[in-house]
Design a protein that fits this description.
Its main location: nucleus. The protein is built from 13 helices and 24 strands. The protein is an alpha+beta fold and 542 residues long. It folds into 4 domains: 1-53; 57-173, WGR domain (q64v53_bacfr protein fold, Single Sheet); 186-315, Poly(ADP-ribose) polymerase, regulatory domain (Poly(ADP-ribose) Polymerase, domain 1, Up-down Bundle), CATH 1.20.142.10; 331-537, Phosphoenolpyruvate Carboxykinase, domain 3 (Alpha-Beta Complex), CATH 3.90.228. Helix 6 (235-252) runs antiparallel to helix 7 (259-276). The radius of gyration is 33 Å and the shape is globular.
């Protein structure tokens, strides 16, 4: 009996064990199924992420790219899918962000390429990193890719890519000027407090601080701001641009080199220039820089890039009303001139009388005149006598730099051949001669032009180009380029003469149509007035 009871007990225990095992097996199968389903779900999500991240050029071009997101000292690339949740990795002042450029127009080549590399760190998830790259032809969005890796793997890939591109691939690294502030167009400027400035002065500030205007003007002369946004091209890179132009100028003027060899040299140097200073020429081949006019054009571009670097540095970090802040950073007193004043009358007459006959495609209308007093300029002024009120025109892009830091002379790295009478500050007594340097157009007809008190002292005279004119003759403080057309009358106004007479033919033999005045020391100049002009372009008769 006891034996039967033990047997039943064992059977019951065995049944319970089998039942528990079956239940465990069922639970394990259920868990495995859930794991498999979750794994498949994650695999599909990962596949979708890879598809999104490895978009090609066409898919990138379909969507309008958002404004760059700046967190830290540099922006996450526009094409990175999760840019809102990531920032560029930085440690010990090392920023893992590089922009490389390679242009090669020599021997029939038509290469004009960029390469971007970044290590991106998640804002929210610790230890989550991507190695991001984008590449393509300058002016295009290009292709891009992103790989999620460990931090060390990201660093290894980043360093290897930069090495491969710069050593084996002949790419140039473009040094950046790092800006944290988001630079809005003037139309989007925020007003935190009521400004104490006059409406006309606020409108003037909107005009010269407008980043969209700067971008448009630089695009018109070939600079590709999509690859290196305005103000972010570092000073060292701009200096390299000047140095290359100097080498190009030397090669152009070299007479002891064979024509074919010179052509190859100029193509190689031009390729270097375009590599450091990105140009968008679509799929067309960039031009070899092989003339003095090419040099002059690119010198003007570099000068504008320097001025824009100043402007964008002043735009960031402001408190209170934005216009008051921008005004303060110009380091100058700016006053609107009354239209009934003697100053206004004489300047308006100066505009009317000195418009050159060869500049007949537009008329000039005075919109506003501002009196400018730059801090410290009067104290540094070198008065050699023979002071004249003369015109100086420039692009709108340059005026924040000009007013805040004064007129400047080209740096030592720049070639002399880009300047007709050497490196100096150039002025004219013909309003239209200087107004041409405003580079306006029928679609952008408003320009700014300066009137400066220039201490000329004794001048040396020239009737043709002299690139070494900065080596002044003994006892001379300036150069005067004698033009065929010149004002017939001077009037004394304040401490200087104003040549307001009508332009008349001087009956002289000269390569110059209008007078030019050049000083080689910026302390011989005081900015006195700024004139806002409307260029009224004449319709061409069909």
């Amino acid at each position: 009996m006891k034996k039967n009871n033990r047997q039943r007990t064992n059977n019951d225990s065995s049944i319970r064990t089998r039942s528990r095992q079956k239940s465990i097996n069922e639970n394990e199968e259920k868990i495995r199924k859930q794991i498999d389903e979750e794994f498949e779900k994650q695999k599909q999500q990962a596949k979708l992420q890879v598809q999104n991240l490895l978009q090609d050029e066409s898919s990138c071009n379909k969507a309008d790219l958002k404004k760059e997101i700046v967190k830290g000292r540099v922006a996450v690339d526009e094409c990175f899918l999760y840019k809102a949740d990531y920032h560029v990795y930085e440690i010990n002042n090392q920023i893992y962000d590089s922009l490389l450029n390679q242009t090669n127009i020599a021997s029939g080549n038509n290469n004009n390429k960029f390469y971007i590399a970044q290590i991106l760190e998640s804002d929210k998830q610790p230890f989550k990193y991507y190695f991001f790259t984008r590449w393509g032809r300058v002016g295009q969005k290009g292709q891009h890719a992103a790989k999620e890796l460990s931090l060390q793997s990201c660093i290894d890939e980043y360093e290897q890519k930069i090495y491969d591109k710069t050593v084996a691939g002949d790419y140039k690294i473009l040094e950046k000027f790092l800006i944290q502030q988001n630079t809005e167009s003037s139309d989007e400027m925020v007003h935190y407090e009521k400004s104490m400035l006059q409406k006309e002065i606020k409108n003037f500030l909107k005009l010269i601080y407008d980043i969209k205007m700067m971008d448009k003007q630089m695009m018109e002369i070939g600079y590709d701001s999509s690859k290196m946004p305005l103000g972010k091209l570092g000073n060292e890179t701009i200096k390299k641009g000047y140095c290359i132009l100097k080498k190009i100028a030397e090669a152009i003027n070299e007479t002891k080199i064979a024509k074919a060899k010179k052509k190859c040299l100029l193509e190689s140097l031009s390729s270097d220039f375009y590599s450091y200073i990105p140009h968008n020429n679509g799929y067309s081949k960039l031009k070899s820089l092989d003339s003095n006019s090419d040099i002059k054009e690119k010198l003007e571009m570099l000068a504008s890039l320097e001025a824009i670097e100043i402007a964008t540095s002043l735009i960031q970090n402001h408190n209170g009303n934005i216009f008051d802040n921008y005004y303060f950073k110009l380091n100058s007193k700016i006053k609107l001139i009354d239209t009934a004043s003697a100053d206004y009358d004489i300047i308006e007459k100066y505009v009317e009388n000195t418009h050159g006959s060869t500049h007949s495609n537009y008329n000039l209308k005075v919109l506003e005149i501002f009196k400018i007093k730059r801090k410290g300029e009067k104290e540094k002024f070198k008065n050699f006598g023979n002071r004249m009120l003369l015109w100086h025109g420039s692009r709108l892009t340059n005026f924040v730099g000009i007013i805040s830091q004064g007129l400047r002379i080209a740096p030592p790295e720049a070639p002399c051949t880009g300047y007709m009478f050497g490196k100096g500050v150039y002025f004219a007594d013909s309003v239209s001669k200087s107004a041409n340097y405003c580079c306006t157009s029928p679609s952008n007809p408003v320009g700014l032009i300066l009137l400066c008190d220039v201490s000329l002292g004794k001048w040396q005279e020239r009737t043709q180009a002299d690139y070494e004119a900065s080596n002044l003759e003994p006892d001379c403080q300036s150069t005067k380029g004698i033009g065929k057309m010149a004002p017939t009358q001077n009037v004394q106004f304040s401490d200087f003469k104003v040549p307001i007479g009508k332009l008349e033919d001087q009956q002289i033999d000269s390569d110059l149509m209008y007078n030019e005045y050049i000083v080689y020391n910026v302390d011989q100049v005081q900015i006195k007035y700024l004139v806002k002009l409307e260029f009224i372009y004449k319709q061409k008769i069909k």
